[in-house]
């Protein structure tokens, strides 16, 4: 037998182009012994996936605007937006892992994210800097409104873990980032004449 053309099981050759059936559909739960009922976990996964989709879009907006910054404050905004994007990416991971820990399936494909998000799509081109910053502020506000509602409802359902993640991470990070962004829209001349 020619082993150079026929991969052997366990022979170190990658088994490429594998296909298989979906093992868990989006919107379903697997049972995990975490002390939360099915309906609570299902609702939590739905709310968390919506926040996850919006947070992925916000992360992408931050990266887009980071690349497209212009003007006298380019350098500071360029760095700040990248730092904010990194924080949003950390939230994406935390939210996705929470969905998984509840037995759900985290939304991950960008095409699926686009179907779930409530954040409006920006134009494909470049906007004025204040418009880009305002777009980020609007996205944050949408997420913060949804996050506060989700945290209150999930806490009422007994899912303190999800509520804590939302308040401690999503809300607090969002509020701090809004503050930094909004201060860049204060009309303060760079030079007094």
Automatic annotation (TrEMBL):
Spell out the InterPro entries in the cross-references: DPS_DNA-bd, DPS_DNA-bd_CS, Ferritin-like, Ferritin-like_SF, Ferritin_DPS_dom
**Pfam families, A to Z:** Ferritin
Membrane-crossing segments per the record = none
The name this protein carries in UniProt is DNA starvation/stationary phase protection protein
User: Which residue ranges does the record assign to the Ferritin/DPS domain?
Assistant: 46-190
Would you identify the family this protein belongs to, as annotated? Belongs to the Dps family.
* Native source species: Streptomyces hydrogenans
Gene3D superfamilies recorded: 1.20.1260.10
